[in-house]
Amino acid sequence: MGTHETQHGTHSTAPGPGSRPPTPRPPSLPVPVTAAGRAALDAITARPSAALVALDFDGTLAPIVENPEDARAHPGAVPALAALAPRIAAVAVVTGRPAEVAVRHGGFAGVEGLAHLAVLGHYGAERWDARTGALSAPAPHPGVAAVRAELPGVLAAAGDRPGIWIEEKGGRAVAVHTRRADDPQAAFEALRAPLTDLAARHGLIVEPGRMVLELRPPGMDKGVALLRHVRETGAGSVLYAGDDLGDLPAFAAVEELRADGVPGLLVCSGSAEVGELAERADLVVNGPDGVVELLRALAARLG
Fold first, then answer.
1. Residue in 42, 56, 160, 182 annotated catalytic
2. Angle of helix 222-233 relative to helix 248-259, nearest 10 degrees?
3. Contact 298, 52 (CB under 8 A)
4. Would you say 61 and 93 are in contact if contact means Cβ atoms under 8 Å apart?
5. 57: nearest Cα among 141, 128, 147, 145
6. Which of 5, 143, 226, 229 has a CA-to-CA distance to 57 between 20 and 30 Å?
7. Sorting pLDDT into bands at 50, 70 and 90, what band is 51?
8. In this prediction, what percent of the chain has a pLDDT beyond 70?
């Protein structure tokens, strides 16, 4: 073991006494499939001090799980972000979750290197800043409480579908999950119209996702939140990564920025459930594992 025969005799492949193990090679950056994506990645690496990296949470930084309360960031996500953040202008997590929940489930508070992180919760209606730990949020929309009170009756009228459950989102939104139903997609489609009607009666909208229908106030989405953050940070290039239908407005915002001359890279945290996102992406990676590898590779390139 540890040797092999050559025509010159026996050659040892084991490291000698006092020798150092080989240094691991840094991960290589994947190449976007579009010209716009490649130009954006070039802009980010050429001038990182002007770059904003923004990411969704569930399905992007955290694996999708049956119970959203069990979701936690990928174990490599925070170290990768902490390595990358000091090298660029800003990092943002843009999520439909309450900002405080995303901070807790992500483990973002008090991490060295993440002073430039902002968590934009409830699609940007809330904001948590890592530097100060301050959370800002508007008053809850009255329609959310009204919808929550009527939901059991609406779900009962739509048919007895075991496995459907309601997620409270801090009084600012309500989500109806169908992933545990016997036929999740059929339940999702059957509930879409009655929940849309319910939301409209109380001045709310329905945000569809991966086997979930969220009833929330209008006026904010991930695209609005992203554009606002780009303006606040003065970013000259943007990377956005997401996995779900709620990330489409952010993709549209990046496309709008491109039209205005701001390079943008669209990354899909791969999912067979949301093909539309993958079709519009410049780069598709293998879920949160792939997102973490991308962040590590980018930090290594900029280091």
1. 56
2. 40
3. no
4. yes
5. 128
6. 143
7. very high
8. 90
Q: What is the three-state SS of the chain?
A: CCEEEECCEEEECCCCCCCCCCCCCCCCCCCCCCHHHHHHHHHHHHCHHHEEEEECCECCCECCCCCHHHCCCCCCHHHHHHHHHHHCCEEEEECCCCHHHHHHHHCCCCCCCCCCEEEEEHHHCEEEECCCCCEECCCCCHHHHHHHHHHHHHHHHCCCCCCCEEEECCCCCEEEECCCCCCHHHHHHHHHHHHHHHHHHCCCEEEEECCEEEEECCCCCHHHHHHHHHHHHCCCEEEEEECCHHHHHHHHHHHHHHHCCCCEEEEEECCCCCHHHHHHCCEEECHHHHHHHHHHHHHHHHC
Q: Are the beta carbons of 130 and 114 closer than 8 angstroms? A: yes
Asked if 56 is an active-site residue, the reply is yes
Helix 184-201 to helix 142-157 angle (10° resolution) is: 130
Distances (CA, A) of 89 to 84, 86, 118, 227: 10, 8, 12, 15
Tokens for 156? Answer: 């009962």
Summarize the confidence of residues 54-67 as an average pLDDT: 93
Helix axes 287-302, 35-46, angle to 10 degrees: 40
Six-digit token string for 106: 């992500």
How far, in Å, CA of 169 to CA of 126, rounded?
A: 12
CA–CA gap between residue 99 and residue 109 (Å, rounded) = 12
> Encoding tokens for residue 260?
């205005």
Q: Write out the two tokens for 52.
A: 């904003």
Give pLDDT tens digits for 201-235: 999 999 898 899 999 998 889 999 999 999 999 99
Amino acid at residue number 212: V
Tell me the backbone φ, ψ of residue 69, rounded to 5 degrees: -70, -20
Buried b (16+ CB within 10 A) or exposed e, 101-125: bbbebbebeebebbebbbbbbbbbb
